[in-house]
């Protein structure tokens, strides 16, 4: 377990460095936006990584409700936390990019707003987990996670209708919005690196959460084993 | 009539009776929404034209806050004397409890809306340019959207620390599409500039999807231990 | 007991054991670090009245809550009337807790009418009879919030026994009752037992159940420390040292 983790961490590190080179050096400078456009290689992969985390959270939550396996719950809480971290990165890099290019920090466009709502939903999920007391937390949180995930497409559609004037998507957009093949390769390298990095974070955090669960379990066992366990309330 | 339907009615009747006798939630909600209406009016000086544009947001935010009061009260009643345990040990289907309570909250919030809507009209000089009957559709669908999820999340937050605070924290983010639908739909009708059809459809989809999810998950939540 | 019901064969479960009203096997309930039930293994036969004694925090209430499905054991198995899925037998259980489990804003008969609905009982006469049986007036318009403790206690019993359950779980039914009412209540419980009901009753007053209890249990620190035939009124056991030991393999704890 330990050596496989080390190998994985090293691979992730290598990926991150190569992706950094790809994004900062290899990719051509964008014609109108200039160097600032390079934030794109961090902004977009973060968003996709966050979304993958929330998908994993959704699957883990359903799995928990069906199987009642504490491992599924550990994955659910872990992926939600890492997802929130990457969503935060998106929300910070977005305005940083928008200010020099559009002249404003924030615009209520469909994807920005959806990302913000996504962040709100999963922060409220994590807050619920913090505030919840007792052994039913995992079950209740799993139910909440299902609500949150199902809400995402509805949020997206509703905000799209609300803001029909939002900027066209850069990638799958109209004729003038294609991107250079070298930019593509930088984007994909960064995507791979970010997903690997998220995987690393999830791995570490998952071990931590499992350890916490095992400590709880051990406390319960020890309380059961000791004759005056009832006094340790 | 199916067992769930019978029991839903019995739960609804019980909640209405309890509320009628104590009037805890209704009084608090009514006063609360009234306060919001008054305080909002201090923050700007609307002309009739302007207020038509913002009234949608204003009215629904006021009702949303008021709804939180009712939703928190709804389960507080079941916690007193631990009556909820009596339901949990009985063979009564969980969804009958959920539906009864959601319908009860729907009635309470609708009453508040009916009582306060004229007040908003007077305070803000509102006159609808679009067909006013559509406001009723938006109100019914929107209120149910708040109430279904609200009842569910209030049950979720029953066993959390500071549960009264927890409910809005859970309910608001997930209700954003519904709120958007209510606000935009109302504005579209009041200003008569666009069709509210899209927003009504959005509310309809939201209601159907989340009512289904609530019904699928409520038993798990009620018996979670 | 439905003889066609297959016994639930899980792990080292012994099918012969399930021919009892309640079978507990190595049942533990842990709240955080607090052990409410400690490896309890017990078997309660049909048609008997069991009195459960013990100091506060000994796990008596938790035992009842585990049996009626309000609390899920941390480990171990619970089989009630042949079922390990307790939702299946919900209609055959009657549960009376410390709290009244009644709505304060409604009158006695209104409360019972609501709870009768949960058990699909529509016979109004039966509700009135249930109230009369516990010595209250069904036509009393007063709301339960204005009842005296003793009246609430009796109405609570009426609620728990409304659907004629096979198994009754009573948490301190004698609390706050005057001596006369206590005698009436214990007579009532004795009659129910004689009609074949199984009753588990938690109480602090052995004298009230001396005449009716078939067996009595003494619980301390989440374990059953002593199990006697009948009730020895003067018996205030000093046998708490009997708490069960944890088996060598250690229990499986679900969290």
Topology:
The complex is a heterotrimer of chains A (233), B (225) and C (255).
Chain A (H helix, E strand, L loop, with lengths): L1 H25 L13 H28 L2 H33 L7 H22 L5 H26 L18 H45 L8
Chain B lengths: L2 H20 L1 H20 L4 H32 L3 H7 L4 H30 L9 H24 L6 H29 L5 H26 L3
Chain C lengths: L21 E10 L2 E11 L4 E5 L6 H8 L7 E6 L12 E4 L11 H11 L5 H10 L15 H13 L5 E5 L7 H16 L3 E5 L3 H4 L5 E6 L2 E7 L26
Parallel strand pairs in C: 3-7, 3-8, 5-6, 6-7
Antiparallel strand pairs in C: 1-2, 1-4, 8-9
Helix pairs in contact in C: 2-3
Brief rundown of the structure:
The complex is a heterotrimer of chains A (233), B (225) and C (255). Chain A has 233 residues and is mostly helical.
Q: Would you give an account of this structure?
A:
The complex is a heterotrimer of chains A (233), B (225) and C (255). In chain A, 77% of the residues lie in helices and 0% in strands. Chain A contains 6 helices and no strands. Chain B has 8 helices and no strands. Chain B is globular and about 55 Å long. Chain B starts with a helix and ends with a helix. Chain C is α/β, with parallel strands linked by helices. In chain C, 24% of the residues lie in helices and 23% in strands. Chain C has helices at residues 60-67, 108-118, 124-133, 149-161, 179-194, 206-209; strands at 22-31, 34-44, 49-53, 75-80, 93-96, 167-171, 198-202, 215-220, 223-229. In chain C, helix 5 (179-194) links the parallel strand 6 (167-171) and strand 7. The longest helix of chain C has 16 residues, at 179-194. The radius of gyration of chain C is 18 Å and the shape is globular. The two termini of chain C are 32 Å apart. In chain C, 50% of the residues are buried. The interface between A and B is medium-sized, with 30 and 33 residues.
């Amino acid at each position: 377990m330990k050596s496989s983790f080390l190998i994985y961490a090293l691979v992730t590190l290598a990926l991150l460095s190569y992706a950094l080179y790809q994004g900062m050096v290899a990719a051509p400078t964008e014609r109108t936006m200039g160097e600032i456009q390079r934030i794109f290689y961090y902004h977009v992969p973060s968003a996709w990584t966050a979304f993958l985390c929330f998908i994993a959270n959704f699957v883990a939550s359903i799995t928990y409700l069906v199987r009642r396996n504490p491992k599924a719950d550990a994955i659910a809480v872990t992926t939600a936390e890492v997802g929130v971290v990457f969503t935060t990165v998106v929300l910070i890099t977005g305005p940083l990019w928008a200010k020099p290019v559009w002249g404003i920090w924030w615009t209520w466009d469909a994807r920005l707003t959806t990302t913000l709502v996504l962040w709100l939903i999963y922060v409220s999920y994590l807050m619920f987990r913090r505030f919840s007391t007792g052994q039913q937390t995992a079950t209740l949180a799993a139910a909440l996670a299902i609500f949150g995930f199902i809400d995402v497409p509805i949020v997206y559609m509703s905000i799209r209708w609300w803001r029909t004037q939002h900027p066209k998507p850069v990638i799958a957009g109209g004729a003038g919005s294609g991107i250079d093949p070298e930019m593509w390769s930088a984007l994909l390298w960064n995507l791979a690196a970010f997903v690997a990095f998220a995987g690393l974070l999830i791995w570490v955090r998952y071990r931590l959460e499992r350890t916490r669960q095992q400590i709880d379990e051990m406390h319960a066992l020890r309380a059961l084993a000791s004759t005056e366990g009832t006094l340790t309330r | 009539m199916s067992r769930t339907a019978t029991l839903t009615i019995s739960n609804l009747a019980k909640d209405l009776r309890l509320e009628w006798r104590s009037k805890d939630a209704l009084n608090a909600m009514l006063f609360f929404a009234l306060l919001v209406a008054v305080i909002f009016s201090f923050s700007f000086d609307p002309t009739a034209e302007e207020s038509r544009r913002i009234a949608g947001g204003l009215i629904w935010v006021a009702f949303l806050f008021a709804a939180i009061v009712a939703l928190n009260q709804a389960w507080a009643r079941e916690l007193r004397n631990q009556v909820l345990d009596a339901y949990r040990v009985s063979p009564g289907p969980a969804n009958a409890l959920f539906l009864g309570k959601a319908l009860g909250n729907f009635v309470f919030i609708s009453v508040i809306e009916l009582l306060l809507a004229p007040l908003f009209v007077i305070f803000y000089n509102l006159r609808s340019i679009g067909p006013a009957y559509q406001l009723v559709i938006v109100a019914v669908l929107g209120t149910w959207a708040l109430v279904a999820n609200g009842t569910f999340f209030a049950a979720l937050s029953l066993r959390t620390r500071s549960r009264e605070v927890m409910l809005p924290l859970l309910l608001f983010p997930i209700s954003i599409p519904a709120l958007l639908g209510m606000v935009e739909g109302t504005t579209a009708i009041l200003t008569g500039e666009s069709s509210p059809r899209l927003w009504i459809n959005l509310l309809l989809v939201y209601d159907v999807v989340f009512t289904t999810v609530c019904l699928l998950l409520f038993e798990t939540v009620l018996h979670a231990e | 007991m439905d003889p066609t019901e297959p016994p639930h064969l899980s792990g080292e479960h012994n099918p012969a054991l399930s021919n009892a009203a309640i079978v507990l096997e190595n049942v533990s309930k842990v709240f955080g670090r607090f052990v409410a039930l400690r490896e309890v293994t017990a078997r309660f036969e049909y048609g008997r009245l069991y009195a459960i004694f013990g100091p506060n925090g000994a796990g008596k209430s938790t035992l009842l809550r585990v049996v009626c499905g309000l609390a899920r054991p941390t480990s171990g198995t619970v089989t009630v009337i042949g079922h390990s899925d307790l939702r299946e037998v919900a209609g055959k259980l009657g549960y009376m807790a410390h709290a009244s489990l009644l709505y304060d804003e409604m009158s006695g008969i209104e409360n019972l009418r609501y709870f009768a609905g949960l058990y699909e009982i529509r016979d109004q006469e039966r509700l009135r009879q249930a109230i009369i049986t516990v010595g209250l007036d069904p036509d009393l318009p007063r709301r339960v919030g204005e009842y005296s403790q003793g009246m609430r206690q009796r109405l609570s019993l009426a609620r728990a026994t409304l659907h004629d359950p096979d198994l009754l779980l009573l948490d301190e039914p004698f609390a706050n009752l005057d001596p006369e009412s206590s005698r009436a209540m214990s007579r009532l419980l004795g009659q129910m037992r004689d009609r074949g009901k199984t009753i588990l009753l938690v109480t602090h007053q052995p004298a009230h159940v001396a005449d009716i209890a078939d067996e009595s249990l003494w619980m301390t620190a989440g374990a059953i420390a002593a199990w006697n035939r009948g009730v020895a009124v003067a018996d205030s056991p000093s046998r708490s040292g009997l708490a069960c030991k944890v088996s060598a393999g250690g229990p499986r704890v679900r969290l």
